[in-house]
Records
---
Amino acid sequence: MSADMKSRPPRGGMLVDGLAQVGDCGLFLLNMLGAIPRSLRYLREISRQIWFVGAMSLVIIMISGLFVGMVLALQLYYTLSIFGGTAALGTVVALSLYRELGPVITALLFAGRAGTAMTAEIGLMRATDQLAAMEMMAVDPIAFVATPRFLAGVIAMPLLANVFSMLGLLGAHLVGVTWLGVDNGTFWSNMTSNVDVWKDIANGTWKALAFGVVVSLIAVFQGYTAPPTSEGVAYATTRTVVFASIVVLALDFVMTAFLM
Amino acid sequence: MPIEAVADALVEVRDLTTMLSGKAVFDGLSLDIPRGKVTAIMGPSGTGKTTLLKHITGQMRPDRGTLRVDGQNVPTLGREALYALRERIGYLFQNSALLTDYDVFENVAFPLRQHARLPEVLLRNIVLTKLQAVGLRGAARLMPSELSGGMARRVALARAIVFDPMLILYDEPFVGLDPIALNQVLKLIRTLNRTLGITSILVAHEFAAVRQVADLVHLIANGRLVASGTPQQLARGESDWTRQFFGGEADGPVPFQYPAGDYAAALGFTGAAA
């Protein structure tokens, strides 16, 4: 496959075309990985992309994390109080956030906030011949456009997921301790003695890293292969959100089963 | 028609055959682009003029045939050699294809920043010289979205010549320009060719504009070279092709009707056809 790969014309039924696209996506990933050494020349571009997909996503991630933590504390407080176990509130909230909700919700938000932006941007660059112009200026668009965005997504996702979980804890503390009156010391001490850095936090971080890889890959691939029309870019953007969400949720199940 | 041997051809196309989705875009095309001249490639829409430019730059590869640029057979070049060749070719895209993230100055500086490690002062001077040449030094800090179509094309031209290429390819440089902008672009094409000796290939439909700059015109149709000569020679319309193309006849070797079945039958007059 060459760097100027474009969308394939449909050939067979839905199944054949779908499988062919998965194959193309895999080859595209290999292409991007192969371009990493050349991409390292464009450190400024990589850091610019980390700013775009990471730092610029911080606000939505922090607000969402705060609210998810607050809701989680409310719901779990109610459930735990049935068994008289509200002392475990901090532990349960932290485990749910770090092991599951943090990585998954962050990945879904990331697909909507940063993934769509990547797809639309690259798709429009293709439609306006900017990628072809780079080719003509002897600059490999895979190395200059695709790989930096992919790497930025992979780097940003685990960081964002951890920020999400931290803000979630803060929200849970706000509701559980400040509002519902769970003892502050119990909240923290139970949590710190039951949440393990390697078993729980690292576990969630691995997940976030994997989600970062698939969401960024899907977003960049969809943009790169979008038909160069306004309709084509619109569909590609939609596909990014749909495919990324499904793959993240499915992969979450598989990873949870294996990492347990 | 026999290919006249050109003493010094920068681009040599021989027996080029390319199939695109089952249809032959080029069917044994052979032609020469002389060094240091402005050559226009003309032909009916859909004859693959832009495709030919993409072959010259190695963005597309033919199914058969050779295409030599400055002695190198482009279809057989590897990535490194191809990129090295592209650094010596300027390409003006139909829609300018400026990088929308960067301002005018950075667009023109882009190839230099990618391929040459120059001190910032020198880089700045080169970019400003090129912008001055296209008359847009004052627009250096504008973003591409703030430019008119004609200005964007001149910026793209400045970017295409920033490395002092041996060859410039112009893909439809006159489309959508008002008469003033058209004359400015014509003047630039002529100046770049005459003063810097850059070989130029021009894909265009506007014969009136082409006449003013081209030294040689190749007319392509049905995947082959059907006529070539100076604009004056072709304008005399000595063959069916040149008569239709430059005389503006609606029907001729290029039929007005897209191939279709029997007309009477399509209208349901089965009896009338008998």
Note: Chain A has one domain: 40-259.
---
Amino acid sequence: MKSMEELVDFYFRPNRLPHLWCPGCGNGVILSALLKAIDAENLAKDDVAIISGIGCSSRASGYVDFNTANTLHGRALPISTGLKMARPDLHVITLSGDGDCSAIGGNHLIHAARRNIGLTLVVFNNSIYGMTGGQYSPLTPMGKKAMTAPYLTIEPSFDILDLARAAGATFTARATTYHVPILVDVLRKGIRHEGFSIIEVVTGCPTNYGRQNQLGAPAKMMEWQKDHGVMKAAWDKMDEAAREGKFPIGVLSERTDLKEYTKAYDEVIARAQASVKEETA
Amino acid sequence: MSRVLLLQGNQAVVEGAIAAGVRFYGGYPITPSTEIAEGMAKRLPQVGGKFMQTEDELAGIGTVLGASLGGAKAMTATSGPGFSLKQEMIGMACSAEIPCVIVDVQRVGPATGQPTSPSQGDVMQTRWGTHGDHWLIVVSPSSVPECFELTRRAVELSEKYRCPVILLMDEIVGHMRERIELPDSYEGLSVPRRKQPDTPPEKYLAYADTDGSMVPAMADFGSGYRWHMTGLVHDETGFPKGTPAATKNSQDRLHLKLRNHEDDIVQVENYRTEDADVVVIAYGGAARTAYDAVDMARDEGIRAGLLRPVTIWPFADRQIQAAAKKTKCLLVHELNCGQYVREVGRAVRGIVPVDLYAKYDNEPATPEQLLEKIRESAEKIKGAK
Amino acid sequence: MKQNFRFSGTGGQGLITAGIILAEAALLDGLLAVQSQSYGPEARGGSSKAEVIISDQPIRFGRVTHPDTLLVMSQEAADKFSGDCDASSLIITDSLFVKDVQARDARRIDLPITHTAREACGKPLFANIVALGAVVALTKCVTTESLERAVLDRVPKGTEDANKKALAAGYEIAKKSAGK
């Protein structure tokens, strides 16, 4: 295992630092956990593609030395899908924020999950649109303040993993920026999973979410993660009352009965080519 | 060996794409372009390629751009409503210089319009559809054989100049069936390929003009050349810089790489224009009316000709100015309220009158109807001199 | 020599297929052909139209503005698509469906097309092929060899014999009418 310094030296692009994330932002924790996972899985840099959408989280792709693309708002998944179709041998890791992935890109999320295409989607869930200055997203909890909800949000939020699972996602997991070893572990499992995997990472945005909602200093926001994230095994034993306000972390679901999309497509090619042979015979 | 077939224009596009080495298609069904999706769904896996029916028009072009980053020649097709939805991603393809081909088989009207009727109302949208300054290539076929040839050319131009190329079609050409002779095998046909880097990976700058062509070499994702693609304005490293000089440099290169190669890119066809007093300018399906109308005008003693832009954008300034200097009148015929005519007027700067026969009632003009307009134009210049 | 054809009737009668077959037969004869059709809701139950132009010279404008031969297989199509016919046009009508044709000065031949399809092949489904046989017998626009080959190339496997019968029946009813 490389030390943090070695990881930075090895995986970060020289001259791309310092990053633009605010002090106390959890995005750096997620990116370093991802690098640890990639390193632990022994993936060659040339074999990894990191595709992101738009938002604070999506800036991550530019910092690291892989095949990378910082695409359009909401469109990281279609671009990842096309790349995976052209190059099924690549490990395509898609980085997206809660707004990017569940609002403007929501349709792509449910269909990528439905197809079970072999992408690893990491959702940086900071409960807010950070880059544009603190407007509410579909993952902002009800009753919170945002620049576009000065009188508190009245919209119920998605559980993005329930959403993905209902749409057919074959691997769903959650972690927080406090539970780093768990985060690295679920990222590794997500990368290894053959099919569509989604990992929601609960992270803090002290600047544009915490401040509006008086959640305190970054460390306090992390403490909240510690107190509210419950390991799946413990969660399963809790009753409804005990679960109130908390959320499960770890691998929440995994299925292996569905074929990965590009592998299924290989069968389409085989059938098409057999039909041509039949015609010409 | 070759085979003679009766094909729709849309089917000929499919064959042209296969022949040009297109191996990925992502798209959403939409009239009157759907035969292209259906044809690609059948043909691509036969040659080891891949077809995806995506969840929406945005994902259609999104998957195309992703596949292109992976090195595949990739294409999508749509009609007006879908073409509108694809605009943001077309802009990214311009800015990040990702080769791709987008077919727009036009229908009548904005919004849902009239899906199965011919129109050329998207001609300005192909040029100015996406936001921000950008430059791209648009070509428009007038016949079924030309659908095959221009699809190949669209792929070739997109690979050569690293930009989206739009194949602008209309319902006339898309749905008409016509004779086409195709080679039995496409193996002998040249398959274009974007320029590959000749520097070692550690020296590779994704957006550097290394040979004066203004077109940077493009490495496939996964080829050992790790680079960064962004929708942000970027410098030759591929990363945003934000200084006025860097912004101007990148914008300059994006348009000069096409403008400096207009001789290679811009094609027009001249039909009986040599001694013409009235030169009709028409493109796509509308040009088919014009050939007949020109012949009919000649039969009654009017010296008429047809200049048919095959490349719609970049605009054929030089060719149209040259025609204007030799003739007495230009008559633009298009199936919209008058779009391309504005550009013709700009190019000829009053050298000769520019008349317009705009038809926008969901039927193509008949040769007789256009002949009447040619007569009117001929009459006017007689009166003027 | 240029010949303009318009086949019209109701969606589902196979007239677009008939148009495609005629154009393919023309290519087999070494001629040029352009085929077009009306699309949309009209092609699904409403009136439907396919047009074919056959010529030994390049065909540019691909729509028919003046049919040399108009095939009409429904009254609605007769009302809708015969307006641009004149004395030089031949209008072939299916006696089962068409009563009246507006273009009164055009030459009209009324043939029992659908009736014959039912009699000869057991199904009205073959009416389009019967009609093709009749059109070709009356206009000689393509050779019967090419027409048969074009028909057999297009139709589903296992229906070859029935389609050949339909063609022969089409030739027959055309000959009979010519003899009148």
Note: Chains A and C do not touch (no CB pair under 8 Å).
